[in-house]
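re the bet — no i am not wrong, look at it urself. input seq straight from the record:
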Amino acid sequence: MIRKPLLAVVGIIAILIGLVWAGQGSGILPGSVMTGDPTWLVIGLILIVAGLVLGYLSTRGRSWRNPNGPPGQH
C-alpha cells in the first residue's frame, strides 16, 4: 500500500515539474529547446492535473466503504 505522505510528495513534485514544462511550452520560461513548443504546454498541464489528483487522493479517508458494514446489519 502506498502511504499518503508519499502520494502528497509525488503530487507536489508533479505539479512543480508540470508548471515548469507548461511555462516553457507557453514561452513564459525561455532558454530551452522546449520553449514555445505547444507539446510541452499540453504535457505540463496534464502533469499538473495528475499532481492535483495525487494530492487529492493523499487527503482522502482510508476507505470509501462504511466501516460499520452494510446498513441494517448492526
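see?? The CA atoms of residues 19 and 44 lie 6 Å apart. told u. also The mean pLDDT is 87. so pay up
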